[in-house]
Amino acid sequence: MRDRLNELQEYAKLHSQQYPEDAIEKDILFQTDHTLAVMQKEIQSIRTENHLMKVDVKRMGKQTTRFLTSMRRLSSIKRDTNSIAKDIKARGEGIHKKLQNLKAINEEAEATYGKNSATARIAKAQYVAITHAFQEAMSEYNEAEMAQRENCKIRIQRQLEIMGKDISGNQIEDMIEQGKWDVFSENLLADVKGARAALNEIEMRHKELLKLESRIKDVHDLFLQMALLVEEQAETLNIIELNVVGVQDYVAEAITHVKKAVEYKKKNPCRMLCCCCPCCS
């Protein structure tokens, strides 16, 4: 039989030159790093926008407090509040679009590397975290708008008290929906300037409440879209939780085995040589 070892070695050398393993590994690593780099850039942009939106929400909260306590410049406070709300809405819609792009990147990573790959799992975890951060910011914005709505109702109730009308909160809600504030003007005398001014104030607050209701509706529309995203993530969160629990179980089991091995080694030091040396008997 002819010795073909040298021929095999030459063939292996030629194959390694044509298909170097390092090049394949570097190519895979480059693709993975590129995917995560693109995703990280998008996430950083969303985090920045989300932070700015939270800052705007705090500003709106301060304006809401001023609206209830200030006796002057209500029109200026109203303009500032409307401007802030407009910025928050635009920023929220922009973040939502970026989250949709992030979702597409995440799905692409799963299709390219597999759902159980490290790249896909990292991408999914980042996507889930940033989505919940946005949901939290939108919840704070919704609370600020609802607080503004309550403050409008309080001012209306105060003006009604000036007019000598004792109206409950439920009655005010009904009047807000119907907009029938003219019922209070029937018994007003022409020379009662304070009462007429109070009625004008009520009508102004009602118009503001209508605009506020429209803004709150826009927030709720975004909440519905966010709810769909969160619902899609529920299964992933359960899988992540199961994986974490599984890892904890494996670690606990491994620690138990290691302790048993150490204890066994201490009790039987001579048996470590049995595989190498013949037993003396």
From TrEMBL:
<dbReference type="InterPro" id="IPR000727">
    <property type="entry name" value="T_SNARE_dom"/>
</dbReference>
<feature type="domain" description="T-SNARE coiled-coil homology">
    <location>
        <begin position="199"/>
        <end position="261"/>
    </location>
</feature>
<keyword id="KW-0472">Membrane</keyword>
<comment type="function">
    <text>SNARE that acts to regulate protein transport between late endosomes and the trans-Golgi network.</text>
</comment>
<dbReference type="GO" id="GO:0048787">
    <property type="term" value="C:presynaptic active zone membrane"/>
</dbReference>
<dbReference type="GO" id="GO:0031629">
    <property type="term" value="P:synaptic vesicle fusion to presynaptic active zone membrane"/>
</dbReference>
<dbReference type="GO" id="GO:0031201">
    <property type="term" value="C:SNARE complex"/>
</dbReference>
<dbReference type="GO" id="GO:0006886">
    <property type="term" value="P:intracellular protein transport"/>
</dbReference>
<keyword id="KW-0813">Transport</keyword>
<dbReference type="GO" id="GO:0005484">
    <property type="term" value="F:SNAP receptor activity"/>
</dbReference>
<comment type="similarity">
    <text>Belongs to the syntaxin family.</text>
</comment>
<dbReference type="InterPro" id="IPR006011">
    <property type="entry name" value="Syntaxin_N"/>
</dbReference>
<keyword id="KW-0175">Coiled coil</keyword>
<comment type="subunit">
    <text>Interacts with the SNARE proteins SNAP-23 and VAMP.</text>
</comment>
<protein>
    <recommendedName>
        <fullName>Syntaxin-11</fullName>
    </recommendedName>
</protein>
<dbReference type="GO" id="GO:0005794">
    <property type="term" value="C:Golgi apparatus"/>
</dbReference>
<keyword id="KW-0653">Protein transport</keyword>
<dbReference type="InterPro" id="IPR006012">
    <property type="entry name" value="Syntaxin/epimorphin_CS"/>
</dbReference>
<keyword id="KW-0333">Golgi apparatus</keyword>
<dbReference type="InterPro" id="IPR010989">
    <property type="entry name" value="SNARE"/>
</dbReference>
<dbReference type="GO" id="GO:0048278">
    <property type="term" value="P:vesicle docking"/>
</dbReference>
<dbReference type="InterPro" id="IPR045242">
    <property type="entry name" value="Syntaxin"/>
</dbReference>
<dbReference type="GO" id="GO:0008021">
    <property type="term" value="C:synaptic vesicle"/>
</dbReference>
<dbReference type="Pfam" id="PF00804">
    <property type="entry name" value="Syntaxin"/>
</dbReference>
<dbReference type="GO" id="GO:0000149">
    <property type="term" value="F:SNARE binding"/>
</dbReference>
